[in-house]
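Example record

The entry below shows one chain as it appears in the dataset: sequence first, then structure tokens.
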Amino acid sequence: MNKDSKIKDISNILKVLGSPFRIELLYEIGSGEACVCHLVAVFKKRQAFISQHLMVLRDAGILKTRREQKYIYYSVTDMEIFSILEKAAGLFGDGKKIVFQIQKLSSNSKCSCPKCEKEKGR
């Protein structure tokens, strides 16, 4: 891979990560795979809006999918993406505190997918 191609790849990843909502999605999915209905319950946003952002992350190679019956579960392809986000957060003060707050979003979720129902019944 030549230098120009590598620079273009880096630029594309940074563009994808340039959306605050995509960063929130990544942290939610990074704490465990999630289906769209789970993400709708967590973020209280329209399914179409969430799906568009998921598609961008998947097309960039940041997310992968797994189908189970009618549900598609999203997971992070490489957890190293979070080291990039934490380094960026660290440039602007106490980044770890921000990351921790983002990761706490799912505790209020009211998703009824089989995975969430199984976790609630622990």
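Notes for this example: Residues 3-16 form the longest helix (14 residues). The mean pLDDT is 84.
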